[in-house]
Amino acid sequence: MAFSELLDLVGGLGRFQILQMVALVVPIMWLTTQSMLENFSAAVPNHRCWVPLLDNSTDQASVPGTLSLKDLLTVSIPLGPNHEPHQCLRFRQPQWQLLDPNATATNWSEAATEPCVDGWVYDNSTFTSTIVAKWDLVCDSHALKPMAQSIYLSGMLVGAAVCGRASDRFGRRLVLTWNYLQMAMSGTVAAFAPTFPVYCLFRFLVAFAVAGVMMNTGTLLIEWTSTRARALAMTLNTLGFSFGQVLMATVAYGVRDWALLQLVISVPFFLCFVYSWWLAESARWLLITGRLEQGLRELRRVAAINGKGAVEDSLTTEVLLSAMQEELSAGQAPSSLNALFCMPRLGLRTCISTLCWFAFGFTFYGLALDLQALGSNIFLLQALIGVVDIPAKIGTLLLLSRLGRRPTQAVSLVLSGLCILANTLVPYEMGALRSALAVLGLAGLGAAFTCISIFTGELFPTVLRAKKATQSTLGPMVLKSTHL
Fold it and tell me: Nearest Cα to 444, choosing from 383, 364, 366?
């Protein structure tokens, strides 16, 4: 009797699995807001240089009352490439001749200009505060904004590498609990960061924990769910990300201050940390690592929750040793990352699944982390990504049982690629069509994510599962960090 049969004995799809699903997927929803946060907290508001005639009450008093704010803007700020007030230059002295109706472009283009030496004035009509406005991440410092995203994704890169090994050594639940606490504390501190480098440091730590939560949530769901229900469990897990997209749009629409928004999406993880102590450790991992007594306790606990009280007495150490003979012998095999390439078939699986993760990660983060480039209403775009994602993932679950894993994976990646390629041919002025193609492409990527999440969990043995998840996460993070 294999472990899958043992799991069916105590209940592989019962009350325990439902409670576990809720306990693990709710944090996934809030975790998604951490990754999508900088679409809003780092949004670039309209801005211009600070100029005395517009922003100094003393200088304004000396201006004739017949001049409007538009006239004062004309003589103080040169026009930019889009024929709007320049965002990074101002006139050294007011250019009154520009008020002449017969003035031409040469009247001001030849005038002396200077950078915004006294700072900037930001449009607060959409957001009351962003990290861009707080630390002036514009003009010569505009590269610091994508750097913050790059640092965040680097945190996921490091977190995936560290947490994968840690969960195989110390257990899935213990690492998950620590990640919840780290995310709560680091996110809270980031909301009060006094400087941009400090903010980036704690966002790095948040991303580190995000990677750990994503990996260990999926692993616990797979290892506590019967084989026939794993596709359903992993699909529900990926739907947590979709609902998280909608949650991000809702919370950001109501909270327009970046620090308060950072705080709102971080505090719930303190609650996750508290209740995670009652989550069950993976019995499969416990048995493979030789912790038979602890594994026996967890199995009996699950049997009791699932109403399988009659089974508890038949669960003994001898039964577990007999049932887990094959898994225990597999647990004695090398469990390092090198083991993924020791066997030709396993090495081929590793390479192909890693390429799929590369394709998903690079494309998803490239689109989803730059919503301002896709349209003006980023709240609506963020919500649409989640709304369109939901039927795409449910449809994927249905297709998996009919077409199989490989065809579904290939079709979802091809369709998303075609939408994104088509987007490159659409003129920038057709913003609605560009946004629609991007959202459809992201829906295809959501389907691809669902498929590869299920596929990866099924293709690799327990002792290597977390390490494989680590390797799968490295590619997209490196690519996106390089791109930024």
Answer: 364
